[in-house]
Design a protein that fits this description.
Layout: E1 6-13, H1 16-28, E2 40-43, E3 53-56, H2 58-61, H3 71-77, E4 82-84, H4 88-103, E5 109-113, E6 116-122, H5 125-128, H6 133-148, E7 152-157, H7 160-167, E8 175-177, H8 183-187, H9 200-208, H10 214-219, H11 222-240, E9 258-268, H12 271-291, E10 295-305, E11 310-321, H13 324-338, E12 345-356, H14 368-388
Parallel strand pairs: 2-4, 7-8
Antiparallel strand pairs: 1-6, 1-7, 2-3, 5-6, 9-12, 10-11, 10-12
Length: about 400
């Protein structure tokens, strides 16, 4: 009898926001020019200094344009750059089609963010034949391209971390394997900055130790790594050696609810930055709740520190709501109890649950007029953004902030 072997695919949409926008414009609107073939980005209004690059085309990448940089800087690198505002409603729908396609072939799909997911295939060799999983992955990749109009990369391995690393190899529209026996050849020569969860600060510390590649880190003395990087160093060194991800890294959100999370580009070390990030997450959640005409009555917050310590808490609200300010207020109160204000944070997320379609607000004497006004205000803002674009109106707190006013994984 053939032993069952578990294969894990990591499927990642290539430059998701730009690909989804381009596919919609070409396939639905009938436009001739494809944003993926010209220097283009998804971002805010290029005339506004707060706008940042959310996604870029391959031609734009050739100009040195990077995700997360200011649009003003990007236009200096490429004066004829085409800038298209984001459309989160479109992205949520495209993501839904993407996940639905994966579920046609796999009964264990784990969505990690709006544009990436893992598929766990247990015993599928009996269906497709031993050694045929890469051929099956190519077929799946091509079906997504031909039926949905955008490309993906698929990484194949026997654990979550290695499949994610494989999915990040050369792009776009590729299938790569990274099995334990291939780590030394395929992963170790890569720059250490490309290892999952190794940010700029950790990269700088490793460089000071003379560690420049993932292989350098894997072969380094454990005691030296622990002395300089503490728990963080040992965890990422484990990743360099092929250790799998902890379950909480990708299963922290409930199946039913509206969630949003992000891995911060730099460590979260002060309350002001944390507040902006959480408000950005809650803005998107609130808009999605109102779009679906539902309310929630439970808010939870989870976070992962730069030393890979995980924590989460939740709060029951007195009444169901779809008001952004109310969701944010609850989330930040939870966050203040969760964070010691000393330990840097790498990943943060907000999740709402106990979703209701028939919810009616239970007013009390003190908030009757306040939440009536906020509900009207939120829906008016939603209408303005739908008509004139997401950046047509935003809270003043984001005016001089480097945080996009609606962001997160939209998971």
């Amino acid at each position: 009898m053939m032993d069952k072997k578990i294969y894990i695919f990591h499927i990642d949409v290539n430059s998701a926001f730009l690909s989804w926008t381009a596919a919609y414009r070409v396939n639905i609107l009938g436009e001739k020019e494809d944003l993926r073939d010209i220097p283009s980005i998804i971002g805010g209004d290029q005339k506004k200094r707060h706008g940042i690059v959310l996604a870029k085309s391959i031609p734009a990448k050739k100009y040195g344009i990077q995700t997360g940089e200011a649009i003003v800087t990007a236009r200096q690198k490429c004066p004829h750059l085409v800038v298209v505002p984001p459309d989160y409603g479109l992205y949520v729908k495209a993501s839904g089609s993407f996940i639905t396609k994966l579920k046609q072939y796999c009964d264990n799909v784990i969505q990690y963010s709006i544009d990436e997911a893992w598929c766990v295939f247990d015993g599928f060799e009996e269906l497709y034949g031993k050694g045929q999983m890469k051929n099956f992955a190519c077929r799946l990749k091509n079906e997504i391209r031909d039926e949905l109009g955008f490309t993906v990369n698929i990484g194949i391995s026997t654990n979550f971390l290695l499949s994610k690393m494989a999915g990040g190899f050369s792009k776009p529209d590729k299938v790569h394997t990274l099995f334990p026996g291939e780590i030394e050849k395929k992963m170790w020569p890569l720059p250490v900055s490309e290892l999952f969860f190794v940010g700029r600060a950790t990269t700088a510390k490793l460089h000071k130790l003379g560690i420049y590649t993932i292989g350098d880190l894997a072969k380094a003395d454990d005691k030296v790594i622990k002395a300089h990087l503490k728990t963080t160093g040992l965890v990422v060194q484990g990743y360099a050696r092929g250790m799998d991800l902890e379950p909480y890294m990708f299963t922290h959100e409930a199946n039913k609810g509206y969630g949003n999370s992000l891995t911060a580009p730099v460590d979260i070390t002060n309350s002001e930055y944390a507040r902006h990030l959480m408000l950005s997450l809650c803005e998107t959640i609130g808009a999605r709740l109102r779009e679906d005409n539902v309310r929630i009555s439970q808010v939870s917050v989870h976070m992962t520190t730069n030393e890979f310590q995980y924590g989460s808490r939740q709060m029951q609200l007195p009444t169901a709501t779809d008001v952004t300010e109310e969701i944010y207020g609850a989330a930040y109160r939870i966050f203040e109890k969760l964070w010691d204000k000393k330990t840097p944070i790498r990943q943060i997320g907000v999740h709402t649950s106990k979703v209701r379609t028939d919810a009616v607000r239970q007013y009390n004497f003190f908030d009757l007029e306040k939440y009536d006004r906020l509900e009207i205000l939120d829906r008016t803002v939603d209408q303005i953004r739908k008509k004139y674009g997401e950046d047509a109106i935003f809270r003043a707190g984001f005016l001089k902030s480097n945080v996009p006013h609606m962001g997160g994984g939209l998971s």
